[in-house]
Design brief:
The complex is a heterodimer. Chain A is α+β, with helices and mostly antiparallel strands. Chain A is 37% helix and 32% strand. Chain A has ten helices and 20 strands. Chain A has helices at residues 2-30, 32-51, 59-68, 70-78, 88-117, 141-154, 174-200, 356-365, 445-464, 493-513; strands at residues 131-137, 158-160, 167-172, 202-209, 213-215, 225-227, 239-249, 255-265, 271-278, 283-285, 288-305, 308-314, 333-339, 345-353, 378-386, 404-413, 417-421, 424-441, 468-477, 480-489. The longest helix of chain B has 45 residues, at 134-178. The two termini of chain B are 27 Å apart. Classes of the chains: A alpha+beta, B mainly alpha. At the A-B interface, helix 2, strand 8, strand 11, helix 9 and helix 10 of A face helix 6, helix 7 and helix 8 of B.
Chain lengths: 516, 311
């Protein structure tokens, strides 16, 4: 008996309970109060993301937190606080908010469409309205009503005259709800555009030395690329030949302009365009955009052993750890040449002074003169031999000397050659610049922009338009008619007081105007 | 006019504006306390004169720098406070006819100007390349206009909360006498959504305008500012795409402008939510006001990000 009950009743009880729970959650999500709380929680989450350093925005500070406060860093990491906008709880929050949004606006949209299609409903007891007036006009009721109808139409009311032609119902302000709905639907469109653009796009960084040609392909980014989940490796193959990079400064050392002059070719080598890429002025080719991001110096270095070149080409130099308050123009550039094929291996670390007057002023006064242009550039070098430990992940511009022995050092001017011993010579042939371009494709951008514009278009009437309803009826009164006007304001009732008074005067005049 | 002369005119006009506002604040509070029409007239005249000098200061600054003077925090503060004054004169005094809140608004303006002069002042100078974009003018312009309106809305909200608390206390005091059924906190002359409630139509009770008037004024101001703030974020995103290669990157300034947007969106929704209008909504607006100040000051001064150059 007991078993039978468990078998027959429990499943139903379960189903009912689950059903009730689902209904409860759905009802909760539909309520404005839930939406409001979720909205404020999303705001709170975003605040957390601005206070804790974020992945991709402040990686160095995250590393510093891990170094200085390992426990705090681990806790933050577990909570996803270093990547708030990609964390599970932020995703959950805005997903719930989206569900709530949809749950709100689907029924509202249905009601709105019904409302917009239906004509304004007639009312019975005008005298009970908050706004009510009676005026006597010297024309028969039918004429008074048709005059009132014209007057209301002029004021952009929708008018419906039911039955006997002695009454009408009018309303306006549908744009308020319509705008609000447009705004909320546009938010969904915006998020869809963001998701599609990010999912099918990529963003990376290209380092290109003057005179060199760079191909837009995965390998060219040297790991400096983030590709969308659905990107599918469809790189454009566009080739960028950097003809020239120019950085200009004011007398104060404040940057004036950065320009990359480049020639673009498609993947078959056909000329596409000659472009100037500057800050705020990206170039575009085959859906891929190129933005000016940064620049630096790249000395062309040749290393020979017994007269045979074992390294020949530009080396990208970087600036690291520029102290606060010091102009990057006052800091030398560092780069490394690694000769992994030699036994023992050899590595040479360079410190580049693009303007030798910078180094001289440091030696004379202790202060580095800002190095704006290349002027008699010099490099100091230190050579090591031993094990480069290349199997460990290392930056291309640092040398791990823990397993190496110093074999020499010196200073090298442009066009000069130094002898490292062991039959190895190193030459500093010339100094070029390199440019750093952000290369990105985001197909969702147009959708996002469109959605943002729609949001604005919806927002304006949603916040400024007001819904009003007006009813008019006319009854014979001697030779003329008594016009009864009732009004109802759903928003800003206080403003409607005056509006209603003007409307009544208008109706009176309009009704009288058609008289004999 | 040489750049040096323009820069000097700008600082002198700043001083004139500051002094004019200072006296205007005293006159406005005098009017608030003693209701002498002459004090109000004086405060309005001085505010007008101050605004004129303020405008001269902004324009001269632009001439000195050879560009539109919206390039750093000092210039933003100058423009923002001028717009707060103009919005106050236009919306509060002229349009709504509320004449007793000027002292509080001008006190905020004075504070903004003092912070600008003491902590944010830099000489007029050209801009770094990243700021060289017409999208910046549109973005910064709309952000400043909406910030000024939101700040005004924030001040009105604070006054509303103060007044509302006062009215509730008063109602609680009177209820035992009048009987529980009659709520004297909202006596019949405060027909909330019916009759026109202006300061003139409501018998004087306390020194501030009725809470209802303040609430409606704050709401109208914020509802006016919200689309402009939205527009500012959109143009900022367009500019960010051109300058940095992405339209949104959760940079602290972006994040906080979004947070402020979300909070004021919450405020606008709260007013349409049963049980949340009135005081609760006002508290949300107050949080929004704080968030606005963080977006405006703290992000540039204390949080490292791509907008740091604007200090």
């Amino acid at each position: 008996m007991a078993d039978a009950r468990t078998h027959t009743v429990t499943p139903r009880w379960w189903a009912a309970s689950v059903g009730r729970s689902v209904a409860f959650v759905w009802r909760s999500l539909r309520s404005m109060r839930t939406a409001l709380v979720l909205l404020l929680l999303v705001g709170l989450g975003a605040v957390a993301g601005s206070l804790v350093p974020q992945v991709g925005v402040a990686d160095a500070r995250i590393a510093a937190t891990f170094r200085d406060h390992p426990l705090r860093a681990r806790i933050f990491d577990q909570l996803g606080l270093f990547d708030v906008y990609g964390s599970w709880w932020f995703t959950l929050l805005y997903t719930l908010l989206l569900v709530s949004l949809v749950a709100c606006i689907v029924p509202r949209t249905r009601a709105f469409v019904r409302n917009a299609l239906a004509k304004p409903a007639p009312a019975r007891d005008l005298g009970a309205m908050r706004h009510y007036a009676e005026v006597v006009v010297p024309v028969p009721p039918e004429r008074a009503i048709s005059g009132a109808r014209r007057a209301l139409r002029r004021r952009l009311f929708r008018v419906r005259a039911p039955g006997d032609g002695r009454a009408l119902a009018a309303d306006k302000g549908l744009a308020r709800e319509g705008g609000s709905l447009l705004f909320h639907w546009a938010i969904l469109l915006l998020l869809a555009g963001v998701a599609w653009g990010k999912g099918t796009g990529f963003s990376g960084q290209a380092v290109i030395v003057e005179g060199e040609t760079w191909t837009e392909a995965h390998a060219s980014y040297d790991g400096q690329i983030r590709e969308g989940r659905y990107f599918g490796e469809h790189h454009s193959g566009v080739q960028v030949r950097v003809d020239d990079f120019e950085a200009s400064y004011r007398m104060t050392g404040q940057p004036r302009d950065f320009v990359t002059r480049a020639t673009l070719f498609d993947q078959d080598g056909r000329l596409l365009d000659r472009v100037e890429i500057r800050v705020n002025h990206p170039a575009e080719a085959e859906g891929v955009r190129f933005y000016q991001f940064g620049y630096g110096w790249a000395p062309v270095i040749r290393v020979e052993r017994e007269g045979e070149a074992i390294f020949d080409g530009p080396v990208v130099c970087e600036q690291r750890d520029v102290p606060d308050g010091v102009s990057p123009l006052q800091v030398p550039w560092r780069c490394v040449v690694k000769l992994a094929s030699l036994r023992p291996q050899v590595g040479i670390a360079f410190e580049l002074w693009p303007d030798s007057r910078g180094l001289l002023s440091l030696l004379e006064t202790g202060q580095v003169m800002p190095m704006i242009v290349a002027y008699a550039p010099v490099m100091t070098w230190e050579a090591y031999e031993g094990d480069l430990r290349a199997e460990l992940v290392q930056s291309a511009s640092t040398l791990d000397t823990t397993a190496m022995r110093r074999i020499g050092s010196g200073v090298l001017g442009a066009g000069e050659t130094a002898d490292l011993g062991r039959g190895i010579t190193v030459s500093f042939l010339e100094l070029r610049r390199y440019t750093v371009l952000t290369v990105a494709r985001d197909r969702g951008m147009r959708i996002v922009l469109l959605a943002a514009i729609l949001m604005l278009i919806g927002l304006l009437p949603a916040l400024s338009s007001t819904r009003r309803k007006v009813w008019v009826s006319a009854e014979p009164d001697g030779a003329g008619a008594v016009l009864k006007v009732g009004g109802f304001a759903l928003q800003r009732g206080s403003r409607f007081e005056e509006e209603f008074a003007r409307l009544v005067r208008d109706l009176e005049r309009a009704a009288a105007g058609v008289g004999p | 006019m040489s750049g040096g002369a323009a820069a000097r005119i700008s600082t002198d006009a700043f001083t004139v504006a500051f002094v004019a506002y200072l006296v205007a604040v005293l006159a406005a509070f005098h009017h608030l306390a003693f209701r002498r029409r002459s004090a109000w007239t004086l405060s309005i005249a001085l505010t007008g004169a101050g605004a004129l000098a303020h405008l001269v200061s902004v324009v001269a600054r632009g001439i000195a720098a050879g560009r539109i003077p919206l390039g750093n925090m000092y210039e933003y503060s100058l423009a923002l406070s001028l717009l707060v004054v103009l919005a106050y004169l236009g919306l509060v005094e002229w349009r709504a006819g509320v004449r007793t809140v000027g002292g509080f608004v001008l006190a905020f303006v004075l504070l903004t100007l003092a912070v600008a002069a003491l902590f944010l002042h830099v000489g007029p100078a050209p801009l770094v390349p990243a700021l060289n974009s017409y999208w910046r003018q549109v973005h910064v312009g709309s952000m400043i206009v909406s910030s000024a309106l939101l700040a005004l809305g924030g001040i009105l909200t604070i006054l509303y909360l103060v007044k509302e608390a006062g009215e509730r206390r008063r109602a609680a005091r009177l209820r035992p006498i009048a009987g529980a059924g009659v709520d004297l906190g909202t006596v019949p002359e405060l027909q909330l959504d019916g009759g026109t409630v202006t300061e003139a139509s409501v018998p004087r009770r306390g020194i501030l305008p009725p809470a209802e008037v303040l609430d409606r004024l704050a709401h109208r101001t914020i509802a006016f500012a919200f689309p402009i703030w939205t527009f500012g974020i959109i143009t900022g995103a367009i500019w960010a795409e051109r300058a940095w290669g992405r339209y949104w990157g959760w940079d602290p300034k972006e994040t906080w402008s979004f947070v402020t947007w979300v909070i004021f969106a919450g405020y606008l929704h709260a007013r349409a939510t049963a049980g949340w209008s009135g005081r609760r909504a006002a508290v949300i607006a107050l949080v929004g006001f704080v968030s606005l100040l963080v977006t405006y000051y703290a992000v540039n001064l204390w949080i490292v990000g791509l907008h740091s150059y604007a200090t």
